[in-house]
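Bench notes, afternoon.
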Amino acid sequence: MKIALMDSGIGLLPAAAAVRRLRPDADILLSNDPDGMPWGPRTPEDLTGRALDVALAAAEHRPQALIVACNTATVHALPALRAALEPGIPVIGTVPAIKPAAAAGGKVAIWATPATTGSAYQRGLIRDFADGAEVTEVPCPGLADAVEHVDRDAVDAAVDAAAALTPPDVRAVVLGCTHYELVEERILAALEARRRAGLPPIVFHGSADAVAAQALRRIGAEPAPGADPTGTLSVLLSGRPGQLPATALGYAEGRALAATAAAR
């Protein structure tokens, strides 16, 4: 079993780690685009072209599924990726987990990039899936870039700024950018510091576990977390064979993937 994941940078690490947890025997292929990152500021047409190049490079290695581990690429390039690869290779997009976050009621905040916050895409998800919950859209300028470059000071500044825009009595937080899951603990600490005493803990809703499980469903495989840890790890850097970026080792998910690869 081989599952590929794509993103411009290391935002794919949480989903890759989730795949590894569900299927330790799965071969994982990470297809990044260091030559074209970041994708966020690009036009939709330009971004789609970069995403297609990254996806087609991964497809040459014949994975059974491809996870688009990037919210921005999902928004703009998912139809083109599916047209190019399906039905031969199922393509799984990444969508903010608004529906499960709203299901329990209470206030919900969505942390996302400035480009996604207030977009027709995100507003449509809120309209269709928030089920009447009170939703606050929180832009997080600079956070994804800070996470990508493992800039702790910049992460702290971006997280604190976004926390100040988040209602202190929010019940659930949706992480609408895959990079944000890498600093979930830092985000939680910033929100809890502003939280009134006596309120229940904040529930986070990322996308990594959901997209990993969906990838298995699309290829007819069951989770088998107890399987022999025989899965390999390979990396493409703008289509070229390479190594896991050094920045990935700044996060637990990257270190876990590197450790399992070194053990093979």
